[in-house]
Protein 1
Amino acid sequence: MANINYANKEIIIKIVYYGPGMSGKTTNLQVLHQMVPKDAASRMISLATEQDRTLYFDLLPISLGSVKGFNTKFQLYTVPGQVYYNTTRKLVLNGVDGVVFVADSQQGKMPENKESLENLRENLAEYGIDMNTFAVVMQYNKRDLLPVYSIEELQRELNPMGFPYAEAVAFKGQGLMETLKLISKLTLQRIGSKSGAQVQDADGNPATPAPAAAPAQQAQPATSSDFFKNLQNKMK
Ligand SMILES: Nc1nc2c(ncn2[C@@H]2O[C@H](COP(=O)(O)OP(=O)(O)OP(=O)(O)O)[C@@H](O)[C@H]2O)c(=O)[nH]1
Ligand SMILES: [Mg+2]
């Protein structure tokens, strides 16, 4: 359901970071905010927190610059992971284009990961989305907190669907760009292949969707344009 507006040549893609409480969703956005250039992500909004627990959501808007003449923006959201905030989680999923599931790798956290994943499946279904065919990336976070489950165990227990995955240590920034790259690639592919895209022409009528992004050079990001080129390059 990416929002593509042909009148002002803009694409807005909504990505939701989902997962159990304390798995590192907010940390993902906070550290990404530090990593991307200022002109690409000028502000991050954290709406309602209590002792660093998310009560509503976080939002990090990232401008990726121009893709085939379209000003492309990602809106990264988090949900509150604590079980009793399901109404909020459902609301935040409204209009979602892609999900990053942030799992906690620590031994003993498998039941919470599974419960959250099942909750995601149910909430997506309420919007008529089949998770099995949706743009989902698994992030196995907290790889530094030993003992952790092996990647094989996590894959077997949480990812029988075979979604792309990345390992991460969110507070150190490890694996965060890799994760963003994977989910960007998946969502842009879906827009390029028409399915899931809500495309409007200047009159608000259905129109042909924009093609997917083209690859470019790899470099340490300096401007939003470089940042996007870097991201595109990683999507190859
Ligand atoms: N050691 C370690 N700590 C991490 C990592 N990622 C996040 N943390 C810490 O885990 C705690 C919870 O992180 P948050 O990002 O607030 O978790 P959340 O998923 O947003 O939690 P809710 O908002 O309650 O759903 C914080 O103290 C983080 O610093 C990691 O990879 N390794
Ligand atoms: Mg949070």
Note: The longest strand covers residues 53-67.
Protein 2
Amino acid sequence: MKENDTSVDAIHEIANAFKRSQILFAAHAAGLFDFLAKEKAEPAIAAAMGWSPRGTRFVLRALAAMGLVTARGARWRNAPAAAACLQSGAPEDQGAFLRHTRRGWDDWVRLEACLRGEGAKRGRHRAGSEAERDYVRAMHAIAVRNAPRCAPLVDCSGRRRLLDLGCGMGAYAAAFLEAWPSLRAVLVDTRAVLAMAREYLAARGVADRCEFVAGDARRVEMPAGLDIIWISNVLHAWYPEECRACIARCFAALRPGGMLYIRDFLDDEVPEAAAFHPVFGLDMMLHSEGGGCYTAAEVAAWTRAAGFKHGRLLHAGRKSRIWTARKP
Ligand SMILES: C[S@@+](CC[C@H](N)C(=O)[O-])C[C@H]1O[C@@H](n2cnc3c(N)ncnc32)[C@H](O)[C@@H]1O
């Protein structure tokens, strides 16, 4: 084998990666994984999807190679991973995540324009749109998996009032409220997102301990006398100056001894995070106005400048970290 073969293969692999995504998006959008909840013959699959027989065959074989469907002769059904994550209503249904990620495609084709600063940024989803709802549901599907891991890292003993800034559907607030029965929470997000949060928190049985504040999280008035402020995966959508100003406002709103927790992709050093961090930074630059991906050092500098005591970095999953800082 020539020495360059490995490099050539690796480069081809990177260049071709988008094709697998498109096969998955197309299959999911057509409802293939719902159809294959039960074993089906190939011609029936083609007919139900409205696809050509040849195309259907290629898609099914490609999905089989990805481990998402299995064949018994010419009959196909979902593999366990697809049954668990790609069928509508499955416990780990990633449908909203796929629709949200697929919409990101339109942003990514403008990458070069964005790099040249040619107005490639799109801004936020239209409030209350299906795209925004998918985005919020996609983030929520991730949050419900992570919240039980984060709750023990946030010590709320003796604390009465927590603010969750940019709460999404409130998976983290729900986890804190369940763990600490005397805690109350203030949830801040846009009006449309808070409507989704209210529904979710009511279903979790904690809505009566929640206050909802709708508005722009960079500007809304924070109630004074807070014990804890939790900000998860929000700052990466903002310009650095907005993050700095927000942290200064958090400092003013916390009681002495109050704690600020900033959960984000703050680590750009461990290998897995190092690969993810810059790609996510570009993702944010492409589809949010001021977005990026900040490091723990940047966040630490903002909390220090605001007056917080030097904080600590906690591990909160494979790529996420929590920066904690205390108001003296
Ligand atoms: C990536 S989601 C994170 C949701 C949740 N905190 C989590 O970690 O799963 C970001 C959330 O912040 C909200 N958000 C971002 N910028 C905002 C702003 N300027 N005003 C109000 N909400 C904002 C979004 O609406 C969204 O619900």
Note: The mean pLDDT is 94.
